[in-house]
Amino acid sequence: CHTPLGAWGTVEGETLHLRACVATPDGGQSWRVEVTGGIHNPHAVGEEAARQLTAAGAVVEGTAAVANALK
Question: Looking at the whole model, is its pTM more than 0.85?
Answer without folding.
Answer: no
